[in-house]
Amino acid sequence: MVTKKREEALSFLQEHATGVLATCGTDNQPHASAIFYVADENFNIHFLTLLNSRKYKAMKENPRVAFTAGTMDVPQTIQIEGVAEEILHEREKNEQAAKLIDLLMEHSKRYYAPLIKMDRSEIVLTWIQPKWIRWADYSAMDKTGTENVWTEIPIV
CA 20 to 30 Å from 92, out of 65, 72, 124, 139? Predict the structure, then answer.
């Protein structure tokens, strides 16, 4: 059962491209922002941000973050708590950055993502290593209530 739910959660995460990242720096002020992301088979989230952004500053001060992606048409969400850090390894950086640039360019047909128009030396590739994952599929709700809605996904 958990294996099936894990596959559903991973599929959902990889089929979507936007979510909300929540951070909190040393000022203890919460901050949430929408991000474009790509995810790998281990639920790691990769995204781009700017060196002068509030989220980058907060992640440097406190790397513990929360991330959520969800849909309303089929009520499903995935919630991830983890640790964010800058990717410094050049091979991984190039691979993930290329995927993200492709994603941003794909979405720029109607609207452009601001990052694709900015100086690349100001852009930071970041990843979230999950420490806790919860998959919620409200479409699975039946007469038993919420019993089959939430599933904690084990970290591999």
Answer: 65
